[in-house]
Amino acid sequence: MTGRYIALEGIEGAGKSTVAAALADHLRGRGVEVTTVREPGGTSTGERIRRVLLDPDGSVDPWSEALLFAAARAQLAAETVGPALRAGAWVISDRSVYSSLAYQGGGRGLGLAEVRTVNELGLRGVWPELVVLLRVDPAVGFRREEVRDRIGGDGIELQVRVSQAFDTLASAEPDRFAVVDASQELDAVVARVCEIVEARWMTSTAT
Questions:
Q1: Residues 6 or more apart whose Cβ sits within 8 Å of residue 162
Q2: Could you read off the pLDDT of 175-194 as tens digits, one per residue?
Q3: 169: number of Cβ within 10 Å
Q4: Contact 41, 84 (CB under 8 A)
Q5: What CA–CA distance (Å, rounded) separates 22 from 28?
Q6: Which residues pair with 135 in a beta bridge?
Q7: Which residues lie closer than 8 Å to 157 by C-beta, 6 or more apart?
Q8: Are the C-beta atoms of residues 92 and 27 closer than 8 Å to each other?
Q9: Share of residues in the chain with pLDDT > 90 (%)
């Protein structure tokens, strides 16, 4: 694959969607072809699964939740992310497989290794090269969320466990993760994320 796959990660209220969009705009301004995706979703199948997963009135067993996320992600990898990377585009993703590791593996207590195995089977090597973890205190992130979906509605205790799982993942894969303080002003967060990507790759955008 000749493209680059960058995932924006973090707990609820970290600012992932906004920063992902700003990073995509920055890269396009540098002449880079960019495909943006979100998880769950990004395909017609994935969007239907998203409605089930995030319905605030719904009830989903933890392992059903993990498998539904994995199914939506496998479809996204096969239909959108993989083809874009092979065509040489960069992919900017609002969440990725690391959300499942943190939320279902850590937050729900299903196990990081177990959830990783389920997702590896479906992704078949389509895996983020860079994960930008937007770190924010769970209480701050929780206050930022005015409208909560089913998972956000499960309370701050879940967000604390997820935050801890993200920190564990970042410590285990320091070459893949870049951690950014998302409690700063938005402009500062965006500037830092763009700086990280520039430093890592922008000297060789043609490769």
A1: 11, 102, 103, 106, 107, 138
A2: 999 999 999 999 999 999 99
A3: 21
A4: no
A5: 10
A6: 181
A7: none
A8: yes
A9: 87
Residue 206 confidence class, pLDDT cut points 50, 70, 90: very low
* 131 three-state secondary structure: strand
Tokens, residue 78: 């096969």
pLDDT tens string 134-175:
999 999 988 887 678 889 888 899 999 999 999 999 999 999
Q: Which residue has the tokens 């680059």?
A: 4
Q: What single-letter DSSP state applies at residue 126?
A: -
Strand order across the 5-9 sheet: 34-38, 90-94, 5-9, 130-135, 177-181
- C-alpha dihedral over 100, 103, 104, 107, to 10 degrees? 160
* Structural contact between residues 166 and 10, judged by C-beta atoms closer than 8 angstroms: yes
Tell me 9's DSSP state.
E
In this prediction, residue 142 carries a pLDDT of: 82
CA atoms 199, 30, 26, 4: torsion sign? negative
CA distance 94 to 15: 10
Find the helix packing angle between 112-123 and 156-172, rounded to 10°.
Answer: 70
Q: Which of 71, 80, 75, 36 is nearest to 53 (CA)?
A: 71
